[in-house]
Amino acid sequence: MRPLLLASASPRRREMLERVGVPLEVRAADIDESWHEGEDPAAYVARIARDKARAVVRQPGQWVLAADTTVTIDRKILAKAADGAEAAAMLRLLSGRVHQVTTAVTILGETTRDLLVTTDVDVIALDETAITGYVASGEWRGKAGAYAIQGIAAAFIREVRGSVTNVMGLPLVEVLEALRTLGAPGPDLAAGKPA
Hints:
By secondary structure, the protein is of the alpha/beta class. It has one domain (4-182): Maf protein (Alpha-Beta Complex), CATH 3.90.950.10. The chain has helices at residues 11-19, 41-55, 84-94, 128-137, 164-168, 172-182; strands spanning 4-6, 24-26, 64-73, 76-78, 98-108, 112-123, 157-161. Strands 1, 2, 3, 4, 5, 6 and 7 form a 7-stranded mixed β-sheet that branches. The two termini are 26 Å apart.
C-alpha cells in the first residue's frame, strides 16, 4: 500500500502522524485559503480541507489526508497573525476567556471521509507583561490564534475540553480511527518515533 499523502505544510501534523508510525508522503497543497464574507468558521475549515485534498496529485490507489484548523471566539476567526501587534491583540482577546479550536479533516481515496472536531480552550487572564513576553518569543508566528499549546503558551491554558491534539492542528484519535475504518494507511505504533 502506498504511503498516506499528507496535503499539508504543517510540521506539527507531520510529526504527530510520523510519531505513531503512519507511513507518509508530504505534499503541501497550493490553494486560495481566503475566508468568504459571512462564511461560518466550521464551513470555512471544511471547505479548505476538501480543497487541499483535491488539489494534490496522487498516485492511483493512494489515500490523501488534508486538514485545516481555525481559532474562533465570538464566532470571529483568528487566523495567523501578520505581525507582533496583531498577535498581541489576539492574545488580549483570548485572555480570561474560553475560545474554540476547530479542525476539519478530509480523507480522500476509494471513498471520502470528512471529519470536524471542535475543542474548547480556557485561557487564564493574561497581563501585558505575559503578552509582551510571549510575542517577543516569536512562538506565535504561523499559528492560528497566535499561540501554540504545545509550547510556551501551555502555561496560559487553564483547561482543554475535547481533543488536545486538535488544538495542535490534528485530532489524532479521530483521524486514526477514520484511517482504520477506511482501510487507508494507518499507524504502526512499533514503527513510531519516541517523544
